[in-house]
TrEMBL record:
It holds the Pfam family Sulfotransfer_3. Keywords: Transferase. This is Sulfotransferase. It comes from the Bacteria. Gene3D superfamilies: P-loop containing nucleotide triphosphate hydrolases. InterPro entries: NST/OST, P-loop_NTPase.
Length: 307
């Protein structure tokens, strides 16, 4: 498809709650990479979801018109890569082929994490996020509602993502990744695991820049974005103290961001205890096993620790 103005050629297609927001911010800071950004309309600028019409995402949270979509890329002629970070493209059955038709030479970035973790995180996000308006607050009941929701039942009133609240289906990553492999080929794709980004952010980011063939010496500040809110009294107390502008100035002056992160992570471990496997999750782990094993074969990587 030929256009007379700048168009996206880099697609971060998902999965949701797998570090995509942080990666979006890291990549958009690179001088050779452009991602749309609009504080007032960050949802649609960051995640236009233009190529997945079958998901019927509401107009407030997606862009339907091609002209409006391409307007996001005005002024990006300088960039080698122009990105679209729509995290439901991975789940969509149509997005891969539509993107391929739109931009045959596109590069695809996928971010993943263990599916049970992803489901927990996404359900918590949907409860507090106005886009989803999730009305089933019990996680396991929401998972069990998936079959009904696939048939259009038990959909929360006023949600803008009615077809994306089947948490288990969204977290079945293997067939989704395979669809992109089949459409674009492995050489055009980069799959990043959230655990690698957490354990070695600089090296993982450098490898991604090398994949994109841009200056891989550039390094942003690896801040965490779109985190879950404080959950325990201790965490909330720390956040209240830190919101004091005088305290914040002093702390920022004496401790770099990564040091502050290590302290915060330590407080979370202290407050919540070490993350333990929940007994009620055992059935979910077993349901996920065939998909995780299939994904491990696709990625040629041991993912047994996801189970």
């Amino acid at each position: 498809m030929i256009h007379d103005r700048p168009t996206p050629n880099l697609f971060m297609v998902g999965a949701p709650k797998c570090g995509t927001t942080s990666m979006y911010h890291y990549l958009r800071q690179h001088p050779q990479i452009f991602f749309p950004f609009d504080d007032a309309k960050l949802g649609r600028a960051k995640e236009p979801h233009y190529f997945c019409p079958e998901l019927e995402i509401g107009e407030r949270d997606s862009i339907k018109d091609e002209g409006e979509y391409l307007d996001l890329y005005r002024g990006s002629e300088y960039a080698k890569w122009r990105g679209d970070a729509s995290v439901l493209y991975l789940f969509s059955e149509q997005a891969a082929s539509r993107i391929k038709q739109f931009c045959p030479d596109a590069r695809i970035l996928i971010m993943l994490r263990p599916p049970v973790e992803q489901m927990h995180s996404r359900h918590a996000h949907c409860i507090r996020h106005i886009t989803a308006r999730e009305d089933i607050t019990d996680f396991y009941e929401a998972i069990a509602a998936g079959e009904d929701r696939r048939n259009g039942l038990r959909i929360p009133p006023h949600t803008t993502i009615p077809k994306c609240l089947d948490y288990f289906s969204v977290a079945r990553f293997a067939p989704q990744v395979e669809r992109y492999f089949d459409t674009f080929g492995r050489d055009a794709m980069k799959v990043v695991l959230l655990e690698d980004m957490v354990a070695a952010p600089k090296e993982t980011y450098r490898q991604l820049l090398a994949f994109l063939q841009v200056d891989d010496s550039f390094a942003p500040e690896f801040r965490a974005y779109n985190e879950a809110p404080a959950q325990t009294p201790l965490e909330r107390a720390v956040h209240r103290v830190y919101r004091n502008s005088a305290v914040k100035r002093v702390v920022q002056a004496i401790a770099p961001y990564q040091a502050r992160r290590r302290v915060l992570n330590g407080i979370r471990v202290l407050a919540r205890g070490r993350k333990q496997r929940l007994p009620r999750d055992e059935e979910l782990y077993q349901r996920c096993r065939p998909d995780v094993e299939r994904l491990a074969r696709l990625l040629e990587r041991d993912l047994s620790h996801w189970l």
